[in-house]
Fold this sequence. Notes:
By secondary structure, the protein is mainly β. Helix content is 11%, strand content 32%. The protein contains three helices and 14 strands. The strands form three sheets. The chain has a six-stranded antiparallel β-barrel. A three-stranded antiparallel β-sheet has the order 1-2-3, with no helix packed on it. Strand 11 and strand 12 (269-284) form a beta hairpin. Helix 1 (39-47) packs antiparallel against helix 2.
Amino acid sequence: xxxxxxxxxxxxxxxxxxxxxxxxxxxxxxxxxxxxxxxxxxxxxxxxxxxxxxxxxxxxxxxxxxxxxxxxxxxxxxxxxxxxxxxxxxxxxxxxxxxxxxxxxxxxxxxxxxxxxxxxxxxxxxxxxxxxxxxxxxxxxxxxxxxxxxxxxxxxxxxxxxxxxxxxxxxxxxxxxxxxxxxxxxxxxxxxxxxxxxxxxxxxxxxxxxxxxxxxxxxxxxxxxxxxxxxxxxxxxxxxxxxxxxxxxxxxxxxxxxxxxxxxxxxxxxxxxxxxxxxxxxxxxxxxxxxxxxxxxxxxxxxxxxxxxxxxxxxxxxxx
Length: 320
């Protein structure tokens, strides 16, 4: 992808591509007109005509976000021969992006110093084909993604599986523009964590932490505390990653770190909150410096009750 010139061969097309233009020699017109559904092809089309080394070409923030997320989406769709290369095999492209687009660099593959919202990555349910727990499992009985040893839990490189950034407003900031929501609603974004520091695999962020009791059967619902009866009204609807239903989470009490809140209002009146959160597991730190959190999974809670009712507390959280 960083080559100045590349030749592409396929059963329908022969072409040359450089960082300024692409020229097909012979092609099937049906190959054009939209971005490919394959992450790799889509990323190449985003890169076509873009020179990472030419500092004279201006780059907007949406462009650099799409280039970064496109890279990670494509990269994590591949099967790694050696799990220990989870990050190493991507460092060349990340270094190119750092020199041109993310001058503050990356923390284990995430540009958290400049874009802390990238902490809101999640595993994609739909691609590739979900793994089954056993051959007789129903389609929604999904196996939990496997951890990779030697990498932090809060980064995509610490897990096997295909990653998406599609839950939060990261890839589509037009969702946060006034009057762009459903029915002409105003949508605002807040509660994004602030980067504090990263020492080794230990990440520190200043963000909002809250607790939910999540019940996954018969419906997927979030409560402020354990419901006393089946008819008790929930705080809101909960979904894990982009799963249809149900989840790897079992019914129980969970502590979460807020990654972003999207507040929907209309004519100045509250309509609903959509809150994206990382579910935390608290463990003893590997360096012996007290208790730290590990990322368990990623959830979204939607509610027509203001999120302040949950009483989220802003504090520094250490993750490993």
